[in-house]
From TrEMBL:
UniProt GO molecular function: hydrolase activity
Organism classification: Bacteria, Bacillati, Actinomycetota, Actinomycetes, Pseudonocardiales
Species for this entry: Pseudonocardia charpentierae
Annotated keywords: Hydrolase
Every AB hydrolase-1 domain range: 20-133
Database matches in InterPro entries: AB_hydrolase, AB_hydrolase_1, AB_hydrolase_fold
Protein name: Alpha/beta hydrolase
Keyword Cell wall biogenesis/degradation tagged: no
Length: 270
């Protein structure tokens, strides 16, 4: 178990492999364990860094921590890369992690070589009916069993029942335990954050935006993630590429995702 103190917090992290640095930023649940198979596939060519975001899973909750702004999460990632002497790195963020990566690109471009955004969800950019549906799901879970049940319902929605049931029990328990942090601190900051088109147009780092192939259809359950990805790609003038599966391919199609990423990473590391 590796812990490091950065940005007035303590983060759990895992390092694998050798070669150019590659950082993965987790979304909802904030757990490094979601990237294990992807990391074990890519560590032959890259130094892969994964971590539990502050206050989640094996990263202890800071004292007197009462808010979790996206910029603070981005600062954590920047200081982690710097402290481990891994900057500049290619960073890949999924979902909430892609929102955090947006702030990282805007605030700390010096620690990055390039950025890959997988299906960021900017709440204010989504169709209102889908936003209402997600809020109803959360409210249902909170009424049935508080933050852990709300976390389970949300995980089942974004990942699918089959993927949820396949999670290792210890990983699943950690993720459900992180519901208190997400719904109590992170969700408000997540729903408030959205970069401006002016900010995005000024980004000079090489960027790629990714979306799950299963979400392309307008009738798909999670099509809102495709729409948010397309909005970001247009704002960055970046290519929009498709990855296997839906919203969390690191859990549903980890090795296929890793192999899809290889040529992209090779191009970004030139």
């Amino acid at each position: 178990m590796a812990l490091i103190s950065v940005n007035d917090t303590t983060l759990y992290y895992e390092l694998r492999g050798r070669g150019p640095a590659l950082l993965f930023i987790s979304g909802f649940t904030g757990d490094a364990g979601l990237w294990t198979e992807v990391a074990e596939t890519l560590f032959d060519a890259y130094t892969v860094l994964t971590y539990d975001r502050r206050g989640n899973s094996r990263s202890p909750r800071p004292k007197n921590w009462t808010a979790a702004p996206i910029d603070q999460q981005a600062d954590d990632a920047a200081e982690l890369l710097t402290a481990l002497d891994l900057a500049p790195a290619v960073a890949h963020g999924n979902s909430q992690g892609a929102v955090i990566l947006t702030s990282l690109v805007l605030r700390h471009p010096e620690v990055l070589r390039a950025a890959i955004f997988h299906e960021p969800l900017y709440a204010t950019a989504t169709p209102s009916e889908d936003d209402v549906r997600l809020r109803q799901l959360i409210e249902e879970g909170m009424a049935k069993g508080g933050p852990p049940m709300a976390a389970e319902l949300l995980l089942r929605w974004v990942a699918g029942d089959e993927v949820f049931e396949s999670f290792d029990l210890s990983l699943r328990n950690r993720m459900l335990g992180n519901g208190e942090v997400f719904f109590g601190l992170e969700l408000e900051a997540l729903t408030e954050y959205r970069p401006t088109l002016e900010e995005l147009s000024a980004v000079r780092l090489p960027c790629v935006v990714a979306t799950g192939v299963e979400n392309r259809d307008p009738e798909a359950l999670r099509h809102i993630f495709y729409e948010s990805s397309r909005w970001l790609a247009d704002g960055l003038r970046a290519p929009l590429i498709e990855t296997p599966g839906s919203h969390v391919p690191q859990a549903s199609h980890p090795r296929a995702l890793a192999e899809t990423m290889r040529p992209i990473l090779a191009n970004l590391n030139r």
